[in-house]
Amino acid sequence: MSLEEYFRTTEGIGILATSDSEGNVDVAVYSRPYVIEENKIAFSMLERTSFANICFNPKAAYMFIEHGEGYNGKRLYLVKSGEETNQQRIEEIKSQRPKRHRSQTESARHFVYFTVEKNRPLVD
How many structural domains compose the chain? Predict the structure, then answer.
């Protein structure tokens, strides 16, 4: 199953792990990624800790835990490959997918692209 189909059809919760330039790790609940190509995904990010970390250290990990019994899901190992800051373009991209959650803040958004270096099951 492709990443696009997986994230379109599978319910669950996502967690993004990043670290700053000194190796201090942060973990945050994140929505499912936008699948751009099979090995390229993106997240809409506010100017918070995860975004600040990715500016200093381009590597991150995303864990998606499927709803249901057992330990099913994916672990994606990521490297930042680009960024979109044009708010109009970001809204165009985001409008292609139903809104699940709305942020209460009006901070600037960034649409950050990542290359998927490794795609592993939640439990090997």
Answer: 1
